[in-house]
Design goal:
With 178 residues, the protein is an alpha+beta fold. Helix content is 43%, strand content 17%. It is built from 5 helices and 7 strands. A 4-stranded antiparallel beta sheet has the order 4-5-7-6. It has a 3-stranded mixed beta sheet with strand order 1-2-3. The longest helix is centred in the middle third of the chain and has 24 residues. The chain is elongated and about 60 Å long. The protein starts with a strand and ends with a helix. 16% of the residues are buried. The structure holds pyridoxal-5'-phosphate. The site of pyridoxal-5'-phosphate (PLP) has 6 residues, from loops.
Length: 178
């Protein structure tokens, strides 16, 4: 059983957020990444925990290549930098609340999350694609969720405060123009 906990750190303050480190069964592997709350997607590094026997078996087939030295150094430094992690989690919280207010004011239904994104529910796949393209033309990338089986949904990642404002202004402008 593989548990993908890519967004784990964003749920740190929520007692209901599951923590697979508590499921220490022989057949569980927990995967986490430095790509999200740690802000290190560019260096391509993550980590996993599992029972020793499982890891020993994985080692038999694992390719010999490791993440680069600088990537490993960055990851170790990130684990020490609790201040950055706190700021990153707080920024995502603020971003989600900002987007909730925005979408509530625009009467657009949305799905709350515990991560660094908010999903909005639009009228149709056509509308999703139109908004996606128009945002792209303005240099803003969002994620249509057709591949997740949610063809009328669009996922918006939170960014810096000023980036969230830029999104909001452009999104409102596009909605008005449609
Ligand atoms: C659910 C989930 N798991 C894993 C990943 C991948 O993380 P990484 O950048 O470490 O490959 C992502 C990133 O988009 C994700 O959304």
């Amino acid at each position: 059983v593989l548990l993908d906990e890519a967004y784990f750190e964003f749920g740190i303050d929520n007692p209901d957020y599951p923590d697979s480190m508590k499921y220490r069964f022989d057949n569980v592997i927990s995967l986490r990444t430095f790509s999200k709350a740690y802000g290190l997607a560019g260096v391509r590094i993550g980590y996993g925990f599992a029972h020793e026997n499982l890891i020993n078996n994985l080692m038999k087939i694992k390719l010999p290549f490791e993440p680069s030295g600088p990537a490993q150094a960055a990851a170790l430094a990130a684990l020490e930098d609790m201040e950055f992690l706190k700021e990153s989690v707080a920024l995502a919280n603020q971003g989600r609340n900002f987007f909730y207010d925005l979408f509530r004011n625009l009467n657009i239904p949305y799905l709350e999350s515990q991560a660094n994104f908010v999903t909005i529910i639009l009228e149709s796949e056509k509308q999703v694609n139109q908004i996606y393209e128009l945002l792209l033309k303005r240099g803003i990338i969002v994620r249509p969720l057709k591949s997740f089986g949610l063809s009328n949904c669009l996922r918006i990642s939170t960014g810096l405060k000023e980036e969230n404002i830029i999104f909001a202004e452009n999104f409102e402008h596009i909605l008005k123009s449609m």
